[in-house]
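Researcher: Next entry in the queue.
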Amino acid sequence: MTPRSGLSLFELLISLALLALLAAGLAGALDLSIRVHDRSQTNPELQQDLALRNRLRNWIASAVPPSHLAQYPVGLEGTETSLAFTTRNTKGFAPNAAALRIELSAGPEALDITFIEILDSGETLGTHNATLDGFKGVRFSYFSPVDSVWRDAWKTTEGLPQAVRALRLSNPFFVDLARF
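Model: Structure for this entry, 180 residues:
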């Protein structure tokens, strides 16, 4: 054996440090892939909740203002436990309708939704009802652009609220459904 064969102590320490950096990088990549996989396997109940929120945001954001002249009811009105509005955004849901009237009613155990497809003439094309379990204790409130406060009720004669909020009492958070 020659004095130069093998690794010196310094070379060994450098190689161990590089190996530790490589192991830390692999552990981080593995952790990230596990988190991405878990996130992609979302609970089906959460998927329904997220899909409904997204659809309601789009519909409320495109609510027909009361100043719009039409043969069907326009505007947005609501109470603490109900919300009704008309949207012309019918894509993907009611392709043959000119407008869609959506009525939400919050019960103690579920959220009842009625969809009314309306033609330009004001005639009803069809009505669909859905009851969504898991939406217990939903309360609506409406943000007034005039006095900058949240209200428990809204009338069509007041125009459109700046925002609509749905607060679920079973969860400690709220969701701003739409901002006009």
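Model: The longest strand covers residues 124-133.
Researcher: Noted, moving on.
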